Amino acid sequence: xxxxxxxxxxxxxxxxxxxxxxxxxxxxxxxxxxxxxxxxxxxxxxxxxxxxxxxxxxxxxxxxxxxxxxxxxxxxxxxxxxxxxxxxxxxxxxxxxxxxxxxxxxxxxxxxxxxxxxxxxxxxxxxxxxxxxxxxxxxxxxxxxxxxxxxxxxxxxxxxxxxxxxxxxxxxxxxxxxxxxxxxxxxxxxxxxxxxxxxxxxxxxxxxxxxxxxxxxxxxxxxxxxxxxxxxxxxxxxxxxxxxxxxxxxxxxxxxxxxxxxxxxxxxxxxxxxxxxxxxxxxxxxxxxxxxxxxxxxxxxxxxxxxxxxxxxxxxxxxxxxxxxxxxxxxxxxxxxxxxxxxxxxxxxxxxxxxxxxxxxxxxxxxxxxxxxxxxxxxxxxxxxxxxxxxxxxxxxxxxxxxxxxxxxxxxxxxxxxxxxxxxxxxxxxxxxxxxxxxxxxxxxxxxxxxxxxxxxxxxxxxxxxxxxxxx
Length: 472
Ligand code: GDG
Prior knowledge:
single chain, 472 residues, alpha/beta, Rossmann fold, 16 helices, 21% strand, binds GDP-alpha-D-glucose
C-alpha cells in the first residue's frame, strides 16, 4: 500500500501499535503481538472488514513503513525523542493523567508540552485520514489523543468517528484547572460517539461541555454547531476483558500446580493476599501496605498466617512522580519486612517485575484475597481477571469504590481506600469469610464478568457508531 491510496474501511488510532519489538530466537529483533485485551477484542472486527491500526511503535525516531503483523495492517507514526518527552511523558502522563485522576499527584502545566501534544495529535489524525476509505469508520483511543477526533473531522468530514476514553473524566471543578480546557473539549466533540467507562465520567464531560462551551445538551446528546451542524453522543461503555484465556489457563493442570507451588514457596501461609498493579500512584498501593502493616502491628494478623504478595510492574520510570512513588513503596515494604519477617515467613513478597500471563493466573489462583484499592481508576481490569480466573468459586475480591469496576462488581467487598481503618476491617472480613459466602459472591461476580466481556463492549460501541452512520 502506498500512503496516498486509502484502503481501510475501519481504522483504529491508539498511542501504541498492538505490537512490541522483542529479541527473536536467533537474536534478531522481531515484532510480537502485545497481550492486551483491546487487540483481542478488535481482532475479529479488524479481519472481517479490512482494518488498519495507526500508532507509535514504542521507540523514538524510528521511521517504519506500513507492515502487516498477524493479519493486521499497522501504520506506524514516528515520534522524536523530544516528542516522547513532551507529548507522551509530559502532557499525557504528567498533565492529563494526574489531573483526570482527581489530582492525586499535582499535574504539571507546560506550554511546550501542550504544543507538542497538538502537533503529535495532528500527525496521528493525518496518518489516519490518509489510510481510511471514503465514508469509513475511525475509532480513536484514549487520553493521549483527545484532539484527534476534531482534526480528523476537519480533514475528512465523510467519516464516522468514535472515541473511547479509558481513564476517568474529572468533575468540572478539577477539569477547569486545565489551561487548554476548551480546546480539549472541542477536540473530543469531533467524534460522533464519545465513550466513557462510567456514567459519572459521561456526566462530568457533558457538564464541562455545557459550562465551558455553552452548547445545548439533551440527555446524552450534544448539539455541535461547527462543521455541521451535527451531534455528539457521550455515554458509558464499561470496558471488560477477553475472559477465555483466563478461564482456560485457570483450568490447566500445570497452572494449578504452579499455584500450589507458589503457596508452598511462601511457607504455606493460611491465607495469601495479592495486589497486582502497574506501579502507579492511582492504584493505592501505599494505602494497602499501610493497612496490612497496621494489622500485623496490632497482631490482628501474623506473618505465620498471612502473606501479602505485591506485584508492582515497572511503569513510566522516567516521570518524576513515579520515581518518588517507587522509593516510598520500597521503603514501606522494607520497614514492614524488617520488623516482621521470620526465617520461614515474609510479610510482603514484593516484586517490581512483569510476569507472563500464565504466572499471573497462577497467582490469581493462589490468592485467597485480591486487593484492588485504587484511589481512582477508569475501570481496573485486574479485578475482572481475578474473577474470571476463579472458576472454582473461591477467593474474595476487596474492591475500591473509586474504580469503574465497582459500578458492576457489587458483590465484592467495597472499600474506601482512604479510610485505613475501614480497609483493615475489610481485609479481616475477607480473610475470615467462610467458603460458602465466598462461593455465593464469586458466582454472582463471575456471571457479570463472563456475560459482559470485551467482545460485548466492542460490539456495543460499534453498534452505537453504526446507528450514527445509518441515521446520516
Ligand atoms: C488503563 C486504565 C482501565 C499488570 N502487571 C502485569 C500485567 N498487568 C496487566 C493486568 C491488566 C493490565 O495490565 C492493567 O490493566 P488495569 O485496568 O488494571 O490498569 P491500567 O494499566 O491503568 O489501564 C484502567 C484500562 O486502561 C482499560 O481501559 O481499566 O482503569 O487506567 O490486564 O493483568 N500483565 C502481565 N504481567 C504483569 O506483570 N502479563
